[in-house]
Predict the structure.
Amino acid sequence: MRQGLGSTAFSTPPGDPVVARGTLLRPVRRVEILAHFSGAFDIAEQQQPGHAARVAYLAHEVARRLGFGAEERRRLLVVGLLHDAGVAVRHGGGHAGAGAWVAERFGYDTPVTEAIAATHERWDGRGRPLGLSGPEIPVEGLLVAAAHWACEFADRAMSPLRARAQLQNSSLADIEPLAGPEVGAALQAALHEDETWLAMWDDDLPRLVAHASIGEGRPSLRRLEEAARAMGEVVDSAVRETGRAARVSSLARQIAFALGLPEAHCEAIGIAGHLLDIGQLGVPRHITDKPSILTVDEMELMRCHPSVSARLLERAPGLSEVAEWIRAHHERPDGRGYPGMVGSEELPIAPRILAVADAYWALRAERPYRPAFAEDEAMVMIELGVGSQFDARVVEALPEALENERDAGDGSEAG
């Protein structure tokens, strides 16, 4: 059982910047947080963050012109946000099947997964994976395909204004083979509206997407936890071993409790553990999979991932401080970490905790170039980093945290 604050209880002198600044997670709706997470699927596809949100918003506007009901439009927004999520993961069933798997992780049902699987079909039957045609294709698939076509064109253009002019001059004959006459005509109408274009390039587009989905349900912290856990599973599928994010989250939370941090901060640190490496979805797979030592250039690219993770999350509701912890989780007390070489006096306690939890489970996992370390071996290696790579107080709390995990039954072995 947890033994109160124990000998490792955390205390600092007044004004010490390592203490979290009153972090409280904000209740969210599922689509609200997914609109921000979708930027990670964009970078996996080598798109700029915001592409999936634009596709979702434009598809929603086209559906509104076609007279779709509120529930149908809410579902369509999710299909748009996740339409290319399958690019990010390793999963059988190809691109579309993988996207459906991602949707299932986030708790979406069959109509959503079936629509995602149809977003690369074409009205003329020349799509994939099934070569469906005409009315055989779920209409959500056609709407997202049409919106994707327009947004991809805009993303390749020199500017949104030039893209707008060129798209407005396109003919129905350009769109009909892809999405059919009805969807094509509605897309053309949407592309001629100033309000639609301004929204698609708004810096706060994820909020607009979430607002368009009013009626999904009440905000809750449980939704945030579920979405963060699902995103961690997606990252694990892409770049790490299964279950790693959940293990890091659980251990980081237990370390925070052992150090005596307030419960709200412990829960926020647990959320951060699930999302720690979301930015690695933008690192080319030949680098994340490389079984040998990375080159200098490859290492520099890998070292960008904490900053990328933070940029993806910093505007998400209630996660701005969590994003900063994630940015700093590879910083070191000796100032030799990355990306900012932050000194010990500037480094908050949360990223110090995340660093130890992440390192412990990395050591406990098998790698192409070495076997997994046993628990005692991993502890020795982490203790060797005290004062340079790891905070002494956090390492001192690690054994108690591991014991509490075993007592609670929420720890797991690596591999």
